[in-house]
Structures are given as C-alpha cells and as structure tokens.
Automatic annotation (TrEMBL):
Alphabetical list of InterPro entries matching this protein: DUF5677
Organism: Paraburkholderia caribensis
Stored Pfam families: DUF5677
Designated name of the protein: DUF5677 domain-containing protein
Length: 308
C-alpha cells in the first residue's frame, strides 16, 4: 500500500509525476550529438531521469526513507552535467576520476584474489587495469588531479544544492543517524517501512524536481533540443507547478529555486560552450568505458544544432 501523503508533500508528489511525464514524452525524439562530451552528457541526463523514477518508486512503495539515495545521485550527476556544459574538457576530469578509482578497485580485487585470480574474468580485469592505469597516468601528466565534491559544486554554480547533498549523505549511509531516522520508533519500538516526516518528504521531492529541471535546462548543449524547445518544456513544468494548487504559498517559497515561481529560474541559459570540440580523451575515454555505458546509435545533424 502506498504511503499516504498530505498537504505540500502530496502536491509535490503530483508535480513530480507531471514533470517526469513531460520529460519522457520528449525522449523518443531526442538525438544526441556525435561527440564524447555529448554522449557522456546524454548518459548523465538519462541517469538523472531514471533515478528520479527510482525515487518516486520508493516513495510510492512505503520505502521513502531510502529515497534520498537516488536523489543524492541525481544531484551528483547534474553537477557533472553542468560542468561539462561550461567546459567540454571537464569530461577528461571525469575520465581521470573514473580511471583512478577503477585502477584502485581492480588492484585491490586482484591482490585479494591472489593465486585464485585466474580464468577469462581475471584476464579481462588485468586488461582493463592496464588501460585504466595508462589513462590515469596520462591525464595526471596533463595536469588533472583529484577534485573534491565541493569543488565541483562551486564550479557548476550549484552551491545551493550542496547543502541538500550533504543532508542526503547523512540519510543514505548505514550510520547511526540514518538507522535512527529509519527505524527508531516511539515507546522503544522499531519502525519498518514507515513514512518519513512530511517536511522530509517535501525536501526530498523538492530537490528531485529542482535537479530534474536543472538537467532539462542543459538539453540544448548535447542534443537536438534547441533553446526554444527546452524553454517550452520548462514552461510546461512551470505551468504544472502553478496548477498544483495545494502547495501553500509559504511552502512554495520554501522549495529551492524551481518552485519560487520566478520565471528567471526557469529559463534556458545561453551557454557559450554549447558546441565544445573534443579534447584529449573525451572520445576515446567514452569508448574506453563502453562496457559500462552503451554508445548511443543516433547523432544530431549539424543543421539542427542550436546556434550559440
């Protein structure tokens, strides 16, 4: 049985359904530009949409205390998406981060397996380890280094989401805070699959919608969706928000940026880096990790690309 939502949380849940429906209605016509950074951006966008749906599934199935996990990942993804739109070379930062962590993980796995690391799987792991180490070392020599999550939020201009991200981290890991939040009930009784506090629910849904909107803003930077079409989609989401009458006015103001009803917060930005050229490993790097992210089969014709 689904959780019973009321007031602002109920209205936000309704708005979330309308928002993702508007986004998914455009997906069948989405074409991705033929560049490494565009393909990575598209994968980030699709991941954000999938995680949005995953969060709603948890909310609708009496597991809302775990909804912070996919929403936190949405925030991470949109930060990377915005940074790619600002600077195509940021893809190489992602490739460096990926190669560095994969090299460490594979090394630890093979070391732990010892003499037991035999067979086709182990051989494949060693092959990938060599590639990731070479990629890591080459990009390190080119000047790339580890960046903190805080650095990435600041670069993206999404510092307002960093506070929500930190809060969600507290609710995701199996630490005392999260365990208490999920399972500590009244009269020394344990809770199981009980709804989160209404204000917590409103925060979860608000940040999810805010993040999805930020991702939609950047569609023109990697797809055939031009600024006008993206703006139409954002306007549709804004209209849905205005029509969600059960959100109290003071509640509307409490929701970060998306819900403030200021048109400026729902406009497509004119990015100067909407037509970045592939640099360094942006294409090769995407193919390097193709076993994790399938390469899209379509690309955007140049005559359909939005102008800078």
């Amino acid at each position: 049985m689904a959780e019973k939502l009321t007031g602002k949380a109920e209205a936000l849940r309704e708005l979330a359904s309308r928002s993702i429906a508007d986004v998914e209605a455009r997906m069948s016509k989405l074409e991705i530009r033929n560049s490494g950074e565009a393909r990575v951006s598209a994968a980030l966008f699709l991941t954000i949409a999938e995680q949005f749906q995953a969060a709603l599934t948890l909310v609708d199935n009496r597991s809302s205390s775990h909804a912070a996990a996919p929403i936190r990942s949405m925030v991470e993804s949109v930060v990377d998406l915005v940074n790619i739109a600002k600077n195509a070379n940021y893809v190489n930062q992602l490739i460096f981060d990926n190669a560095r962590t994969d090299a460490t993980s594979l090394t630890r796995y093979l070391d732990a397996m010892g003499d037991g690391a035999i067979g086709p799987s182990a051989d494949r792991f060693r092959e990938v380890l060599q590639i990731t180490e070479e990629t890591r070392d080459r990009l390190k020599a080119a000047g790339f280094k580890r960046q903190t999550r805080e650095d990435k939020f600041e670069m993206a201009g999404l510092v307002d989401l960093s506070a929500s991200y930190g809060l969600f981290c507290m609710l995701v890991h199996p630490n005392i805070t999260a365990l208490t939040h999920r399972h500590a009930g009244n009269d020394n009784k344990f809770k199981y699959r009980e709804p989160v506090h209404p204000e917590t629910m409103s925060t979860l849904l608000s940040v999810a919608i805010r993040t999805l909107t930020e991702a939609v803003r950047h569609l023109p930077c990697f797809s055939n969706i031009d600024r006008a079409a993206a703006q139409t989609l954002l306007d549709d989401m804004r209209t849905a928000c205005l029509n969600t009458s059960r959100i109290p006015r003071r509640g509307v103001r409490a929701v970060p940026r998306l819900m403030t009803m200021r048109r400026s917060s729902l406009e497509v930005r004119d990015f100067t880096a909407c037509h970045p050229k592939p640099r360094l490993d942006s294409d090769r790097g995407f193919l390097l990790f193709a076993y994790m992210i399938p390469k899209p089969s379509t690309s955007t014709p140049s005559d359909r690309m939005p102008s800078n």
